[in-house]
Each structure stands twice: as C-alpha cells, then as structure tokens.
C-alpha cells in the first residue's frame, strides 16, 4: 500500500490531459460533503472515506489533501479501468467515461461505452461486437477506432457520448425508482452529470 507521500507524489506522472480532466472533476465534486442519504458517507474532493482508507489515508476526511485525491482519481478512475487508453483516441469520450466513473463506479461507463459501440456497428457489418465486460481494453479501443474511421472522428465522438449519457440517465432513474433517498441527488445529477461533456470538443 502506497504512503500518503507516495500517493501525492504520483500526481507528477499524470499526463496533462488527465490532469485537466481531474481539475474539472474537482470543480464538480467540490470539497467536503457528508450527506445522510449518500451511502458513500463522508467525501472530500469526490473521494469517499472507504476509498481513501483503502489507499492508506488515515487522517480526517475534511483534511484529505488534493494531491492525494488526484493520485487516487488517476489510479482508480483513469488508469485502473483503462480510460487512459481513450484519452489519446477521443478526449471527450474519455472525459465522459471518467466523469461518470467517479460518480457511479468505473464499471458502469465501461459497459455503457461497450454497449454504445455494439449498437453502432450495424449488426456487426462495420466491426465485430465486443464483450460488455466493464473494462476498457484494446478490443474496446479498436472498436471505437473502427467507428471513427467509418463515421469520422467528430461524428463517432458525438454518437458515443450521447448514447453513454442516455444510459447514465437511465441508471440514475433506476436508482431513484429503487430507493427514494437517491431523489436527493437527482437534480444535481441531471444538471451536472448528464450532457456535461461539450460535444463541441468532438
């Protein structure tokens, strides 16, 4: 387990593009929050107490350093699920996956991306279906690249981000339908997590 100092120092190895995405996350997530309806409990910079402890942080959550949170973001929500592979292929698609992953867990946007790609291949006439396994690997990246070659970079980007947003919205509605306490967050989710990636960046 890495020490707090090692975690904070790891931020120096993060790419400029990833740092920009993380900076945007900090703006959305804000500082310290401990909402009674949030099963994640106390959160600072979008990092829950459970995640912070898993990474060896032993201090008070109110004092969680931003550099520590930055390193956790990169390890758990960018490199871990394979979203770093997307940054060089389509920064807006990577941003959509990373932002959604911080809010819902990275397996969800991985599957949303894979589902979108499979639904856009015209019954496998354009490229083969990929496994919906919740992890972005080389096959997922190749499928996206095939879509981009066929449709153009901008169109592929817009199609995929829109379909990922649609699935994310359905996921939030399912949460609120299953447990009314999640309605406490629906306004924020709808305002800040759906349609928050500028399609003009495609």
UniProtKB/TrEMBL annotation:
InterPro entries: Lysozyme-like_dom_sf (IPR023346), Peptidoglycan-bd_3 (IPR018537), TtsA-like_GH18_dom (IPR008565). Residues 108-193 form the Peptidoglycan binding domain. It holds the Pfam family Glyco_hydro_108. It comes from the Bacteria. Residues 24-105 form the TtsA-like Glycoside hydrolase family domain. This is Putative peptidoglycan binding protein.
């Amino acid at each position: 387990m890495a020490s707090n100092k090692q975690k904070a120092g790891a931020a120096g190895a993060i790419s400029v593009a990833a740092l920009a995405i993380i900076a945007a996350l900090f703006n959305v997530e804000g500082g310290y929050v401990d909402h009674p309806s949030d099963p994640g409990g106390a959160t600072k910079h979008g990092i829950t107490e459970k995640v912070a402890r898993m990474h060896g942080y032993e201090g008070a959550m109110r004092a969680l350093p931003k550099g520590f949170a930055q390193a956790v973001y990169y390890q758990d929500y960018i490199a871990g699920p394979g979203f770093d592979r997307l940054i060089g292929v389509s920064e807006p698609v990577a941003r959509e996956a990373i932002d959604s992953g911080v809010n819902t867990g990275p397996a969800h946007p991985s599957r949303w991306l894979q589902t979108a790609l499979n639904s856009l291949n015209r019954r496998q006439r354009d490229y083969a279906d990929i496994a919906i396994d919740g992890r972005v690997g080389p096959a997922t990246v190749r499928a996206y690249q095939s879509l981009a070659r066929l449709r153009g970079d901008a169109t592929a980007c817009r199609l995929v981000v829109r379909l990922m947003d649609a699935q994310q919205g359905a996921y939030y509605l399912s949460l609120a339908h299953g447990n009314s306490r999640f309605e406490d967050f629906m306004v924020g989710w709808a305002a800040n997590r759906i349609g928050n990636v500028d399609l003009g960046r495609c």
